[in-house]
Structures are given as C-alpha cells and as structure tokens.
Amino acid sequence: MTTTALHQALLTPRTYPHPTTHVEFQETHISRLYLTDQYVYKLKKSLDLGFLDFTTLDQRHHYCKEELRLNSRYAPDTYLTVVTINCADGHYTINGAGEVVEYAVMMKRLPRERMLDDLIENDAPHLAAEMVRLAGQLVDFHQAAPPVHPPAPVFCSTMRGNWRENITQTRPYLGTTLPACGIRCLRFWLANFYRHHRRVLRQREQSGFIRELHGDLHAEHICLTDPIQIYDCIEFNLRFRQIDIADELAFLIMDLEYRDRADLANALLAAYQHKVTMELTAELLRFYRVYRAWVRGKVESFLSADRDVPDAVRNRASQRARRYFNLALGDMCQPSLVLVSGLMGVGKSTLARSLTRSSRALLLRSDQIRKGLVVNSRDTNKSAFGAGIYSDSISELTYRHMRELAGTALAKGQTVIVDASFSRRAERDAFRDEARRHRLPCHLLHLHCRSKVALQRLAARHRAGTDISDGRPELYRQQREHFEPISPAENPVEIETNDDNEKLVGQALCAILEGQYR
User: Fold this and answer.
1) pTM higher than the cut 0.90
2) Does residue 1 register a pLDDT over 50?
C-alpha cells in the first residue's frame, strides 16, 4: 500500500459504501479530508511534530477515536463513527474486506454556505447578530466544562513550556514566514509580560478558569446552523485543550480580526462579557491573542514547508503564516506614533494599511484628509506640483489637522499611523514633538524603491483611476528634488519596498518593537 495509491482510491466515488457523484480533497498540516456529497472522511497524516505523534497505525486509530469522543461535546450530530479503510488484492474499501491500512473519522458534511469563514468572505448580512448567538453557546459550553484542579498550580509553567515549544518550532522559519528578528522581539515581550502579569495567570488557575475546552476555536471550525456546530477540537494533546477560558475566547477574537472583521470580534466579546461576570483585562486578552496568532503562524509555516503538497497550497500557507505572525507582532507593540514617509509611488499607503490591520491603529492618510479639508476636491486633481490644493498653505493646514487628530488618539493610548510624504524636516519634527508631549515613542519609517518601479506604480495607479491620490509620473522628479533628506539623527527605519508586502510589514513591526525595548 502506498500513500499515493490510497489517495487516488479515496478520490474515486466507487470506493465509498454510499452513492456520491464526486469527491473533493482538502488538507491541513496534519490531516487529509475527503468530502463526498453527504459525508466527510478525515485521515491523520503519519507524522511526528513533537506536540503530536501519528506515526503508527495504532496511534492514528487511537486519536481518531479520541476525536470522535471529544467532538461529541460540541457537535454531537456531526461526528458519526470511526471507519476502517481496507485493502484486498489492491482494491480499497471502507469497512470492507482485507487488511486494515488506515482509519478515518466519518462525519456528516455540514453546509458550506453556513460556515463562518465563508459567511465572512461573502460579507453576509446579520453576522453581528450571529455573534450574539455564538457567544451564548460558547458561554454554555465553557460553564459546563468542569475546572481543572491539578495537585499543584501548573498552568503558568505550562504556558511557559508552550511558548518555549513555539519558539523552538518557529526558529526554522526565521527570514521566510517570520521576520529575522521576530523571536528576539517575542522574547523581550514575553519577559516583560511575565514580569508584570505572572500572578494573573496563577490566579486564573486558582479561580477555576482553566478547563478542558475546544482548543482550536477559529472561524473555519464553526458552522452557523441551528444549533451551531463547533467541530474539529484538539484531540492529540491534553495541554492544548486544558486552557484558560479567556484563551479560547481570545483565539476566536484574533481570528476574526485576522479576517478584517474587528466589528465582529467586538460584538462577540461584548455579547460574551454581557453573559458572564468573569474579568477579562485588556492585557490578558492581548497575551492570548499573541499566543494564538503565533500558533497559527507556526502551523501554516508547517504546511508551507511540506514538500508533499502542491506549490500553490504551500504558497498560500506562507502568506497566511506571515499575516498571522504580523498580527502577533502588531499586538506586541506599545502605543506609539508611526510616520510612514517617502516619495510618491514607493508604496506608503499599501504598507500603512497593512500596518494598521496588524496593530489595531488609527490610520491617517494625508491624501484623504487633504481632500476632506478642501471643498469640491475629492475628485482627481490635475494641479501642478506645489499648486492648487497642494500649495504650501493647504499642505500646512493638512499636516496641522493630522497632528491634532493624532494627538487626540495618542491621548487615549491608541497607536496612530500617519501616511504622508513628510518631505520637510519641520513636518517630521512637529509630529515627534506631538508624540513627546504624550510621552509616547515616535517611529519614522522611510520607504524607498527604484525610480523605475515607483514610476511604473504611479502610471498603473493613474490609469486605474481608483485611488484618491493625485500622484502621477510627471510629478515624481519634482517631489524628489524638493524632498528634504532624512538624516541619521532622525533615527529612520529604512525600508526598501521591492519585496512582498507582508514581509515588509513584519520588518517594520520588528523595527518598532526593537525600538520599544532598546
């Protein structure tokens, strides 16, 4: 029996004991799934990742049975049985004759159109109301789970062990899916968290908030049917499902934010807190969001390095891993003022938007604010360089207004990202003074790329006509000539924008974090 032969057999409808017109195939870093018209068959890959070991047939059989048992708590109508996959004379059957070559968990196929990840991707209406319903079911599950009371407090040390494992297992991905200095920044942040909040983790255990839960709660594992089906919990490692209730909730909040739905994350958290009296501090939720984003980055990195899967699958996994790691790094950043500076066409707005998503910051874009200040100027403006709405007086008004908006947000402890050319030293100094006034750091990101690349970007953007910016190729050289050089004394973070955008975001976030702990 070869894996290839078994795979081909399971892609063939006649292999199954029930009628099906076709078979779909999906895979994760640890599983292979075959979806027939009505059912799903889930097989475990033969691998050892340290935190799980599926290398023998007996182990895979055991964990299939554990998956069935544990998921019956959350989705009793979905998980049906564990089946054998048999082979006789080169012919494969389900629960048939011949040698047992593999085991699979058999499940009912849930409606794809009700999966939370699909509903989000399709921007389905009324999802905020669904978050209230989901929060109610999570509260019921969490309150029904009995507290874990070991002979001695162990949860804090368990979390430290989990983090050590994460660091060890993500080190091979430094410079690929994880920025080169990502682990160094994480170590600084963790040391600071434990210095100030170790007692909180111990109190969570003493108060009975550590329970045997789902352990892998994100949008892909939730189907918003009636009743809601929450499936695919952690079956292979007890310490990954004996967790803090706040950890489980933070995981789903992080995942919704990863999917650019902070509104749903906020609705879920508000609905959950409305139903319980448990205290959920901002720092505790931040700690668990970072933890969960890092774990997701890790498992996507595993898939990105799996030579047995197609290149397209590996490439998509790499992109997802970078975004998850960036979300973790962004959550680790303290409130600050970030200036994204550079000539037109270097990619300031692209990077600034991604930084905003990763760090939950307020984004101030000069192009948008400038046109908001000047009546009837929201359409494309063909003024010459330094004329019209780009005159010195309008530019000074724009920067002053952005500084006032930034000051208001900084006073509330919010990170602010300002997307503007900052071509004058006086403009940069004024924003530094604003950050200093609020006793917060200011980071200057200086973006640049080859002139040829910038001009190509400007030409493409101008042809598309979909961006609010009025930057165009004929203005590029004039702006370059008038740009006051940024000196080393300004401590700029120099970013060459010819690379993948998520890599650049990671580079910027690490630079901010290193400045934070310097």
Assistant:
1) yes
2) no
